[in-house]
Amino acid sequence: MSTEGDYSDQLIVDQIVSGEKDLFRLLVRRYERSVYGMGLSFFRNAEDASDFAQEVFIKVYRNLVRFEGRARFSTWLYKIAYNTAINGINRKKEYRSLAEEDLISSADSETPEHLLIRNAARDAVLASLDELPERYRVCIDLFFFYDRSYQEIEAITGFPVNTIKSHVFRAKKILREKLEEISAGG
């Protein structure tokens, strides 16, 4: 079943492939924040994330004629982004969870005490996420922060669905245990 966003992606892709190349900016605008966020997860700094996003969109543009529409456009794009990141990470740094950027946002009206508690909670979660094996962090990010289904994560990472379910389950269990230790003062 196709959603309106999927249909419009497909329509835009079809028009670009038919020669209306300037419409590619619509796809970039729609997905640049997510791709940049994935870059931050992998490379941990704005400059490398920006370079990563640019590289991903160049690859997407060059390969747009190969998009067959069997999967959602966003899944196809994230697969390209994921593979680009994995190749880049092998040359650079270790993966870092997207949760670092999006987990907790502070409201202007919060008291200093609430901000302190919120920041301590964020730091505890981030420290726990950092201790997870990389394959668990990738699955957690794609599932919770990118709102991808198990099937989409399979298409993006190449991990079998049951492996993804297992990674998400184990990661949640590990995180729960670590956070319980922290809250108990251990």
Q: Describe it for me?
A:
This protein has 186 residues and is mostly helical. The protein folds into two domains: 88 residues, RNA polymerase sigma factor, region 2, helix turn helix motif (Rna Polymerase Sigma Factor, Chain: A), CATH 1.10.1740; 85 residues, Orthogonal Bundle (Arc Repressor Mutant, subunit A), CATH 1.10.10. The chain contains nine helices and no strands. Helix 2 runs parallel beside helix 4. The chain is elongated. About 4% of the residues have low confidence.
Blueprint (SSEs and pairs):
Blueprint: H1 4-17, H2 24-43, H3 46-63, H4 73-91, H5 99-102, H6 112-131, H7 134-145, H8 150-157, H9 161-183
Helix pairs in contact: 2-3, 2-4, 3-4, 4-8, 6-9, 7-9
